[in-house]
Amino acid sequence: MNKLPPQEELETLNVEYRQLDEQIDTHKRDKIKLNTYLSDWQRINQEEQELLNRILSLSEGANAATHAGQALDDRELFANHSRSAMEECIEEFEQTEKKLTTQLTEVEEEIQVQKKAVHDYAKD
């Protein structure tokens, strides 16, 4: 027959079991904290790398901006010349349009005169 351990021994094992269980829970919590810290560290490390890349890009960009500023000045000068040329073209177009409208009106009037003459001639 199986002999049961004495009550004292059971209580001692039960206490040891609870202590081990608490240690396991503590270990699990510590592991979760450690994983959180590791994740935070990786995120911070990645953000730091992105910032360093951005700083490098900005320093390269500052140099490019100097050249771009000159290019913008050149572009503005070109735009002013282009605007003037465009305004001249628009003015010329408007003048041509007026001339053509006047000529069209004259032709339409002449057509009306010719129609009236033909109509009057046909009456007689």
Entry summary:
This protein is mostly helical and 124 residues long. The protein has one helix spanning 7-123.
Short key terms for the protein model shown above:
124 residues, mainly alpha, 1 helix, 94% helix
Structural class: mainly alpha
Number of domains: 1
Number of strands: 0
Q: What pattern of helices and strands is seen along the backbone?
A: H
Over the alpha carbons, how many angstroms does the gyration radius reach? Answer: 48 Å
The largest sheet, given as strand count, sense and whether it forms a barrel, is: none
What is the rounded distance between the termini?
150 Å
Mass-distribution shape? elongated
Q: What is the average of the pLDDT values?
A: 85
Strand content: under 5%
Q: List low-confidence stretches.
A: none
Helix content: over 70%
Number of helices: 1
Give the topology, please.
Elements: H1 7-123
Coiled coil: 90-124
Keywords: Coiled coil
Protein name: DUF5082 domain-containing protein
What does this structure look like?
- The chain is mostly helical.
- The chain has one domain.
- It is 94% helix and 0% strand.
- The protein is built from 1 helix and no strands.
- The chain has one helix at residues 7-123.
- The longest helix is centred in the middle third of the chain and has 117 residues, at 7-123.
- The radius of gyration is 48 Å and the shape is elongated.
- The chain starts with 6 loop residues before the first helix and ends with a helix.
- 0% of the residues are buried.
